[in-house]
Amino acid sequence: MTSVTQHKVALVTGAARRIGAAICRALHQNNWNLVIHCNRSVAEAEALAAELNQQRQHSAQVVQADLNKMVDIQFLASAAPAAWGRLDALVNNASTFFPTPIPEATEDQWNDLLGANLKAPFFLSQALFAELSQQRGCIINIGDIFAVRPMPRHTIYSVAKAGNAMLTKSLALEMAPHVRVNGVAPGAILWPENAEGEEIVNRDKLEQIPLGTLGGVHAIADTVTFLIEDSPYITGQIIAVDGGRSLQQ
């Protein structure tokens, strides 16, 4: 374990790219140290850590773990506070997302989607509760507006995110007053990607968004930063960041 830092420390899961990386950069700009979790995106996580460490030395570390494996969850929960001798925030951002039409849905798909979106956030929060309590820290769960209204052909994903929303409220109740727990529910933030990592652009989707545009990763990163840094009396809340999409019928 390195010497205890005076900088606040956050663990961000699924942090190598897209929304997770934006959250890391936003917190880093606010003088936080980052534990950057990844699973398969090791090279991108290492590049992000190098970028942040170039801005401020010894301010970012990478921890690889498969959050569908309990042994890896336990390893991550041990490694994160050991990085700098403290942990002030946990951002449960890691997620899997893919369609599961009812006729073709499998148990493996159920386990994957429920594991990444619900099981891992619960057991990481459980394992890190004592560490976060010492710092009067907080947990942010990245949910989805489709936790409230199901997404067609994505039943299992919608169920997982609905559970994630209840997890946020239940943890906030049980962990108070020592740890605040809130959620952020993104709408259309980025275009989804195909298996090759290419964006799938669908301009028709913009017609469903009152503000008429994608939110971009900074919309989520700024909301997470607000909940962590500037809202000491907010807990158990889920903020929709969706350009008004959830207002549409």
Key phrases:
249 residues; 7-stranded parallel β-sheet; alpha/beta; Rossmann fold; 41% helix
Question: What's the helix and strand layout?
Answer:
Blueprint: E1 9-12, H1 18-29, E2 33-38, H2 42-55, E3 60-64, H3 70-84, E4 89-92, H4 107-134, E5 138-142, H5 155-175, E6 180-186, H6 217-229, E7 238-241
Parallel strand pairs: 1-2, 1-4, 2-3, 4-5, 5-6, 6-7
Helix pairs in contact: 1-6, 3-4, 4-5
Task: Report on the architecture of this protein.
The chain has helices at residues 18-29, 42-55, 70-84, 107-134, 155-175, 217-229, and strands at 9-12, 33-38, 60-64, 89-92, 138-142, 180-186, 238-241. The chain is of the alpha/beta class. The chain has one domain (9-241): NAD(P)-binding Rossmann-like Domain (Rossmann fold). Strands 3-2-1-4-5-6-7 form a seven-stranded parallel beta sheet, sandwiched between helices. Helix 1 crosses helix 6.
Q: In short, what is this structure?
A:
The protein is α/β, with parallel strands linked by helices. It is built from six helices and seven strands. It has helices at 18-29, 42-55, 70-84, 107-134, 155-175, 217-229, and strands spanning 9-12, 33-38, 60-64, 89-92, 138-142, 180-186, 238-241.
Mind summarizing the main beta sheet? 7 strands, parallel
User: In the CATH scheme, what's the topology name?
Assistant: Rossmann fold
How are strands sequenced across the largest beta sheet? 3-2-1-4-5-6-7
- Average the pLDDT over all residues and give the rounded result: 93
DSSP strand count: 7
SS-derived structural category: alpha/beta
Order of helices and strands: EHEHEHEHEHEHE
Based on the structure given, which CATH architecture is correct? 3-Layer(aba) Sandwich
In the CATH scheme, the class would be Alpha Beta
* Number of separate domains: 1
